[in-house]
Design brief:
The protein is of the alpha+beta class and 437 residues long. The chain has ten helices and 23 strands. The protein has an eight-stranded antiparallel β-barrel with strand order 16-17-18-19-20-21-22-23. Residues 31-330 form the Beta-lactamase-related domain.
Length: 437
């Protein structure tokens, strides 16, 4: 089924001096108006410069059933963007001499494979080799049920290592779950208490906290996926992600937080330098975000049908936070539109989008193997959206281009399915053929 939305907005090149930077709010307003009218996005955006908010917008519903609209102060689950907070807490614990980056984790988790080799530094920059916890059979149908810490450690301890520690990097929520427990052990306090004491209260963040069951009465919102209308998604239990993805916040709180982080108000400038050192595309709870000749940093998150991103450009002192509780249109396209607008770069927005029929997705789903290197890619369906999973690591969303073509906008990977049993995967200019098992 092809959705009949087609419009184009072009953010033209403004004739200004090379160093001039200015936001055209009218063009951004027109973008969000179109997204709202076409049911492509529900969520909030906040853009801040030098600590002052220069743009914000809210579109869509916090609760579709009661027709309650999202507002600037609506609170969302932010998923893995939580990892920026957790990384800051860990580096602050290093400053407080509670732990060191080079100490191994075997004293905390002796049952985890390679724990005598894995350091806290390896957990922070995803170089531990510890397998992705959400790929466990216990979470094959999601994680709506609470799990104790003992249960979670037992699950993680069953995994074999994906690679020798510090030989490469691969994203795994297990790393930040374990960092959460280390923080709780060395401080003898809960993650929520540490978050409040070391970040929320000092910065006076009014709408940020460790999440629980969603409360509309507390100005939180539900998350939704779109079929022929917005459908409410289930709620993940926050005992599973903990410091890997359990924070609730607003776009305004997020931009304020990251500004203060880069100002050295949470951790020292030296710790910040350590946090933002990129190796194999990974920092510590943060990633590099290049945009033309500009250098920024970003983390993004996904939980239930919530999605978030938080970005900061240090030289420009520009921060952008986007959180959605329902989206057909990818948030990176919105981020690109906002950055292009601010930095006076050309950017065309095309709302023509393809939504495959459920039966077509079902024909595609399955596990594919490369006959040469034996690498496997598993394609799964969740809420009428397609996800790819490499070596049972984290899922990444595949955006439909046509019936047989999909892409991951963030990584730039492309997948072309040749039914009934072939697939071509393209990354960094290289194409690999996979056969369906």
């Amino acid at each position: 089924m092809k959705l009949k939305f087609c419009a184009a907005f072009v953010f033209g090149i403004v004739t200004l001096s090379a160093n001039a930077q200015k936001l055209d709010n009218i063009k951004l307003d027109s973008l969000f108006q179109a997204l709202n009218e076409k049911n492509l996005f529900m969520g909030n955006i906040s853009i801040s410069k030098n600590g002052n908010e220069i743009y914000s917008n809210s579109i869509g519903k916090a609760d579709v059933e009661s027709n309650k609209a999202l507002t600037k102060d609506t609170k969302f689950r932010i998923g893995s963007t939580t990892k920026i907070f957790t990384s800051a807490l860990v580096l602050k614990a290093v400053e407080n001499k509670k732990i060191t980056l080079n100490q191994t984790i075997n004293t905390f988790f002796p049952t985890i494979v390679n724990s005598q080799k894995i350091t806290i530094r390896n957990l922070l920059n995803h170089r531990s080799g510890i397998h992705e916890l959400l790929s466990a059979d216990e979470f094959s149908n999601g994680y709506t049920e609470a799990k104790s810490q003992e249960e979670m450690i037992s699950i993680i301890s069953k995994f074999q290592s994906d690679f020798e520690p510090n030989t490469k990097a691969d994203y795994s929520n297990s790393n930040y779950y374990l960092l959460t427990l280390i923080l709780e052990k060395v401080y003898k306090k809960t993650y929520s208490e540490l978050l409040n004491e070391q970040i929320i209260k000092p910065l006076r963040l009014k709408n940020t906290y460790f999440g629980g069951k969603i409360s509309i009465q507390n100005n939180e919102c539900y998350s939704y996926y779109f079929s022929t209308k917005w459908e409410k998604d289930t709620q993940g239990d926050m005992s599973v992600p903990l410091g890997a993805g359990a924070i609730v916040s607003t776009t305004s709180d997020l931009t304020f937080f990251i500004e203060k982080l880069f100002e050295g108000k949470i951790i020292s400038k030296e710790s910040l330098k350590t946090m933002t050192q990129i190796q194999d595309k990974y920092g510590m709870g943060i990633f590099e975000l290049p945009f033309y000749d500009k250098k920024g940093f970003v983390h993004r998150g996904q939980i239930d049908s919530f999605s978030s991103l938080l970005s900061y450009f240090p030289n420009e002192k520009l921060s952008i936070a986007i959180i959605t509780n329902g989206a057909v249109y990818d948030k990176k396209k919105i981020l690109t539109a906002a950055l292009s607008n601010y930095f006076n770069k050309p950017n065309s927005i095309n709302f023509e989008t393809y939504q495959p029929a459920q039966q077509d997705l079902e024909k595609i789903a399955g596990t594919y193997k490369n006959p040469k290197n034996q690498q496997e890619i598993t394609i799964t369906i969740n809420n009428k959206r397609l996800y790819a999973n490499f070596r049972n690591q984290s899922l990444f969303l595949l955006e439909p281009v046509s019936k047989d073509k999909f892409e991951n906008i963030w990584e730039g990977n492309k997948i072309d399915f040749q039914l009934p049993n072939e697939m071509t995967f393209e990354a960094d200019g290289e194409k690999l053929k996979f056969l369906k098992i």
